[in-house]
Design goal:
Layout (H helix, E strand, L loop, with lengths): L5 E4 L11 E2 L11 E7 L5 H10 L4 E4 L16 E2 L4 H5 L6 H11 L6 H20 L23 E2 L5 H18 L2 E4 L4 E6 L5 E8 L2 E12 L8 H8 L15 H8 L4 E2 L11 E2 L8 E3 L13 E3 L14 H8 L6 E7 H6 L9 H10 L3 E4 L2 H8 L3 H17 L18 E7 L8 E2 L6 E3 L5 E7 L6 H5 L9 H14 L3
Parallel strand pairs: 3-4, 3-10, 4-7, 10-20
Antiparallel strand pairs: 1-2, 1-8, 5-6, 8-9, 9-10, 11-18, 12-13, 14-15, 15-17, 16-17, 19-20
Helix pairs in contact: 1-5, 1-14, 3-4, 4-14, 11-12
The structure holds flavin-adenine dinucleotide.
């Protein structure tokens, strides 16, 4: 005989991350079927969990708020990292999970969670080999050392022509027979709104909103794999501690898993790991805003002719800094994660166009239509229009021009092709923003959601971005360390949970 059921709602406000328990003993269980595993979120982590649990004969219920499975894989670049794979062996690449681990800890400056990183890298190759066995095909020259993030020391970084959608195609095909056999039931368009615990605090059921009805499903284990909070601006600011500037996450990444987990005694961690990307030109000031364009700030792809200044008109980095991580870390203390790319007419006429995918003429046109592109005859007028401190900008440009003349830059910049001297002058505003959620629900090395005293909440597990990007990458962006761990942790839970 079970104890009296207690409902803990995830729907109330998250103020202070304390959610009040709501007694709803009157709500009857609305299902005849008990499941061995309920998976909340049919995305990157959730689908592998369903596939591997069903392969062991488990009865699984997978529930998703969205009208389709796949989650962030619909948008993700799908870059994965795995060491010791068969593909590497075929290519004669000598690599190991230990080297992968060492690289993640080096790149993250030891700020990633060692236990979770170990679990992820030790099992990444099996995840990747399984995907390959099931038809996944990375780009022909892969694996590579890196792209867009600090490079690895060995070639263990892979993705496919259609990014995350190519991974999803494999997962979809592997899930299909389990749906057909009835081992996995799938509920779409059905947000999970609460976890139901018994008197001892063990999770025993989930409540869902199915149209205008609430339903409850019971299971031996519940896996929260419902993603991050990157599309919930209020929660983003509360948890990550900065404004949510960019609108580029999956719409259903609303932080539901954090609310659900905290409501039954879990807690969040990792705020200190927040890191923004190095900035994009966003569509407008209505934040969160879509990306309008990106300037090529990677010096290995285009040596900079311009300078970067913050709102005070000050430079904050050598613009040809080769390290992705050092660039991103340098942006972090700048007011509002904002900077302007400054140049003059001579640079505009002679440098390769800096806005990615734009010709020089297209760039010129942007100064007439987009408020983040400003042009003026003097530096003072430019500063005023752009919202930068004019005296600061003037002093910075004078100092930079002396560096160009002497070949000696205070920041150590080496590429000093021209002074910024001849009007009109130009400023293109950039905004740092995020595509992932830094903070996450605390789990132990078995991926059990834990209370503050390290004590697991019985029957409740979590995987994916819900754990917080910072747990696997620390205060850094480490290539492939979200998609691969999400799939790996889902797979391991599907294989290992005592069902
Ligand atoms: C543009 C972009 C590019 C990226 N590129 C990379 C990359 O190249 N490499 C990398 O490692 N990482 C990358 N990431 C991050 C990575 O893709 C994600 O962290 C990862 O896919 C998240 O997996 P997940 O299983 O945690 O969540 P998801 O895959 O988002 O799945 C969560 C699921 O839960 C569902 N859900 C939400 N709330 C509820 C609820 N209340 N009830 C039921 N279901 C719910 C959602 O609808 C969704 O289907 C990228 C992210 C973005 C946005």
């Amino acid at each position: 005989m079970r104890g009296r059921r207690r409902f803990l709602t995830g729907a109330s406000t998250l103020a202070g991350l304390t959610l009040l328990a709501q007694n709803r003993a009157a709500l009857a269980l609305d299902t005849a079927t008990d499941y061995q595993l309920i998976i909340v979120g049919a995305g990157t982590a959730g689908i592998p969990a369903a596939i591997f649990a069903a392969a062991r004969g488990a009865r699984v219920l997978m529930i998703d708020a969205a009208p389709d499975i796949g989650g962030t894989l619909h948008l993700s670049t799908g870059q994965m990292s795995a060491a010791g794979t068969r593909l590497q062996a075929q290519l004669g690449i000598k690599d190991s999970a230990q080297l992968h681990y060492d690289d993640v800890m080096r790149i993250s400056k030891n700020s990633a969670d060692p236990q979770l990183v170990r679990l992820a890298v030790d099992h990444a190759a099996d995840t990747f080999d399984w995907l390959m066995d099931k038809g996944f095909r990375p780009l022909p020259d892969h694996p590579v050392l890196g792209q867009g993030h600090e490079p690895y020391s060995e070639r263990r970084y892979y993705w496919a022509a259609n990014g995350g959608r190519d991974i999803l195609a494999v997962l979809r095909a592997e899930l299909a027979p389990h749906l057909a056999s009835g081992r996995v039931d799938l509920l779409l368009g059905t947000p999970v709104t609460a976890l139901l615990t018994d008197d001892a605090g063990s999770v025993e059921a989930v409540r869902v909103q199915a149209g205008d009805r609430e339903r409850v499903f019971r299971a031996r284990h519940v896996l929260l794999s419902c993603g991050g909070y990157v599309s919930n601006p209020e929660l983003f600011e509360q948890l990550s501690g900065v404004r949510d500037y960019g609108d580029n996450g999956y719409a259903y990444s609303q932080g539901a898993g954090i609310k659900l987990g905290v409501a039954v005694g879990g807690f969040v961690r990792g705020r200190e790991n927040y890191l923004s990307n190095f900035g994009s030109i966003l569509a407008d000031d209505q934040f969160p805003a879509k990306v309008f364009a990106r300037f090529q700030v990677i010096p290995q792809l285009r040596a900079p002719w311009e300078i970067f200044v913050n709102v005070r008109g000050e430079r904050f980095i050598r613009e040809d800094e080769p390290s992705f991580d050092r660039r991103e870390v340098a942006l972090l203390p700048q007011p509002d994660l904002r900077f302007w790319v400054i140049f003059d007419d001579e640079i505009f006429a002679n440098a390769p166009p800096g806005v990615i995918g734009f010709s020089r003429d297209e760039m010129r046109d942007a100064f007439d239509v987009h408020s983040w592109f400003q042009k003026a005859d003097s530096l003072e007028a430019l500063a005023k229009q752009a919202g930068i401190d004019a005296a600061g900008l003037r002093a910075t440009v004078e100092e930079y021009n002396r560096a160009v003349a002497t070949g000696r830059d205070r920041f150590g910049r080496r590429h000093l092709p021209r002074p910024i001297a001849k009007g009109p002058f130009y400023a293109i505003r950039h905004q740092g923003h995020s595509t992932t959620s830094t903070v996450g629900l605390a789990v132990d090395e078995q991926l059990r959601v834990i209370r503050a005293r390290d004590e697991p909440i019985r029957n409740l597990h979590a995987a994916g971005e819900l754990l917080g990007a910072g747990q696997l990458m620390g205060q850094s962006f480490v290539g492939g360390m979200m998609v691969t761990p999400a799939m790996t942790f889902g797979r391991l839970l599907g294989q290992r949970l005592p069902l």
